[in-house]
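Researcher: We're teaching a course module on how sequence relates to structure. For the next exercise, students receive a sequence and then see the predicted structure as tokens, so they can try to spot secondary structure elements on their own. Here is the exercise chain.
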Amino acid sequence: MSMPISIHLRGEGLDTPETLQAVRAVFVDLREAEALFSTFRADSQVSAINRGELLAGDAHRLVQEVISLCEQAREVTGGYFDAYLPRPDGTRWFNPAGLVKGWAVERAAARFRELGGRDFCINAGGDIIVGGSRPWRIGVEDPTDLGQFAATIEVTSGAVATSGSTYRGVHIVVPATGTPAREVLTATVFGESLTWADVYATAACARGSGALRWLGTLRGYAGMVVKPGGAALVTANWLA
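Model: And here is the predicted structure for the students to work with:
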């Protein structure tokens, strides 16, 4: 996945074989996702689909699951999330990265939910999923002043995802046109599912000027956007 992934656990019995097995299983799940979905690996199934060597209907069941989720994401975001991105020649290629990272981490986190009795926090390149009995305090970095927080929130069970250009430059595009999305520096979304928080954050960046208003319509999720030269703007239910 080309990013740091860390796991933090709280509670009793952290040094038990069951806990160690769960941690190992999380990383096995994430490596499996990378092997299937990486657009940087020639041997991944996503790369094979893009070369025309593998039909979606013949792909691994997890790839088919993600393709279906990407279609749902395109519909619920009004096309501002689309895993099929335009090339300069007008054709499209499949890149589910805006969904699959959150999906993969959320899927792996089920290992800790099944374990029970421990609070957990998985941080995958700034996209975070937590669970347990006590709140985790999560800082949202200010893209205009790195090292400072634009906001902090407390989450007991749920997810926080941030998309934007802070570290990777302008890499999110408007799906309909293929043009770089520059109107929003970062969008942060929190709610129950990391899969959908990741999708909504990506779509908000692509949507641009109407992002905050749109985020405010999403039931069960709240959002924050930072625009170039501006302060952080949050939905009405950000801390509700």
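Model: If you want an answer key for the exercise: Residues 17-37 form the longest helix (21 residues). The chain has one domain: 5-234.
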